[in-house]
Design brief:
Length: 266
C-alpha cells in the first residue's frame, strides 16, 4: 500500500520518476505502442491460421490413409450399382483405372452393355448385345477422351500429381459448399478440364467435387481397403437436383488387369 501511495503522491507532486517509472511520458507513445502490439498480434495470428495448398492436400491424403500406401497404387477397380433418380432401370457399373490416366468404364443394363475406354493415346466406345454377342465400335470424341483421362488421374493420384501428368493446382481458400465451410482446391488438366474439390477444413475429408460442366458429386459412407479409406456412395447432382446415386459393393486396390483391357480393338 505504501508503494501505491508513494507513486500517487509523487505523480501529484510533479516528480518525474519514482523507482525508475516515468509519470510524465507522452500519452501518444502509449497509443503507438498499443497499435504496434495489435498489428504484430494480427500478423502472427494470420501466419498461424493461413493455410497453403500443401497443407490442404497433405491433410486430405492423410484422411485417406498412409502416404506410402497411396503412392503404391497403380490400378483401382470399382464395381457397384447406379440408380437413376428418375425411376429408370438401375445399371451395373465397373470402373477400372490404371496409371497414369487409363480408364475402362462398363455400364450394363438389361441385355446390353456399353464400354468406354481411354488410354494414353485414344479412346473408343463399344456397344454389345449380351444375348447374341453382336458388337459395334466407335471412337470417342477428343473432348470426351480428355475428360476421361482427367477423371482417371483424379481418382488415381489422390490430389497430388507428378509433373508428368501436367495438372495445375490452386488453393482457393475457405468457401461454403452446400451449407458447409470447406477448403476449396481447383485442379486444371490438359485441355482445360477442371475439377473443384471441397474438403472438410477440420479433417481433410473430401465432401464433394464439382466439374467445369456443372455436375456436382458428393460422397458418403466409407469402405476400408488395404488400409485406405474410400467412399462407398456417390450422389451426382445436376444443379440442385439429384440425378443418380452410385453405391459401390466392391473396391480393389491393384487388381490384376486383363490383357488388352485398354487396347483399341482391331
Amino acid at each position: 500500500m505504501n508503494r501505491v501511495l508513494l507513486g500517487t503522491a509523487a505523480s501529484r507532486a510533479g516528480v518525474d520518476c519514482v523507482c525508475g517509472l516515468s509519470f510524465r511520458a507522452d500519452p501518444r507513445s502509449y497509443v503507438f505502442m498499443i497499435r504496434t502490439i495489435s498489428i504484430l498480434f494480427l500478423l502472427s495470428s494470420l501466419a498461424l491460421s493461413a493455410k497453403t495448398l500443401e497443407d490442404v492436400i497433405t491433410q486430405a491424403r492423410e484422411f485417406v490413409g498412409p502416404n506410402e500406401k497411396i503412392e503404391s497404387i497403380d490400378t483401382l477397380l470399382y464395381e457397384g450399382v447406379l440408380v437413376p433418380e428418375n425411376g429408370a432401370e438401375e445399371r451395373r457399373i465397373s470402373l477400372l483405372l490404371k496409371k497414369p490416366a487409363s480408364q475402362r468404364l462398363e455400364i450394363t443394363q438389361g441385355e446390353s452393355r456399353i464400354t468406354m475406354v481411354v488410354n494414353d493415346m485414344e479412346g473408343f466406345m463399344m456397344q454389345e448385345n449380351l444375348v447374341n454377342g453382336q458388337k459395334g465400335f466407335s471412337p470417342l470424341p477428343t473432348d470426351q477422351v480428355r475428360r476421361f483421362k482427367a477423371n482417371a488421374a483424379e481418382n488415381l493420384y489422390f490430389f497430388k500429381f507428378p509433373s508428368s501428368v501436367r495438372v495445375r493446382s490452386k488453393y482457393l481458400g475457405e468457401q461454403e459448399f452446400r451449407g458447409q465451410p470447406v477448403d476449396a482446391v481447383r485442379f486444371i488438366h490438359s485441355g482445360g478440364v477442371q475439377f473443384f474439390r471441397y474438403f472438410d477444413p477440420e479433417t481433410g475429408e473430401l465432401l464433394g467435387t464439382e466439374t467445369d460442366t456443372g455436375t456436382i458429386n458428393t460422397e458418403e459412407g466409407a469402405i476400408q481397403v488395404d488400409g485406405l479409406r474410400f467412399s462407398d456412395k456417390v450422389l451426382s447432382f445436376e444443379g440442385d437436383e439429384l440425378a443418380h446415386t452410385i453405391t459401390f459393393d466392391k473396391i480393389e486396390v491393384n487388381p490384376e488387369v486383363p490383357e488388352g483391357a485398354f487396347t483399341f480393338p482391331e
